[in-house]
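REVIEWER CHECKLIST
Item 1: Sequence provided? yes
Item 2: Single chain? yes
Item 3: Sequence as submitted:
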Amino acid sequence: MRLFVALSAVLPLISAEVIVGQLNFYYDTNCKSYAGSVYPSPTEASSGVLGNVRGGPAGSKSLLWVSGGLGPECQGPWFFACKNKECSAWDGVEQGECKSFENGVWGAYQELCPVGE
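Item 4: Structure as written out by the authors:
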């Protein structure tokens, strides 16, 4: 019985999704009127290309990367503000930097981490 209780307490921690950062979206162009946040996971963020793009709520006009990073063994993180959902046009941004575009804004994240040997 004790083993079952111990395992059931640990399993939710093992299956919980790992978050690599927080990206806030805003309804205005200067990151004041909060619209919502997204929390990218490693599977969304570590493909090595800017294809892992996250959008905010409809009407979002600016974004701000609040945090990000998987650990010291990784290269990066690199944060991007995208001008479209394909992220074919983007600007690199720093953590904490507000960025806006005329026709909406999307965020992308890249970090290169070693794969198990």
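Item 5: Key structural point noted by reviewer: The domain at 18-112 is CATH 2.60.20 (Gamma-B Crystallin; domain 1).
Item 6: Recommendation: ____
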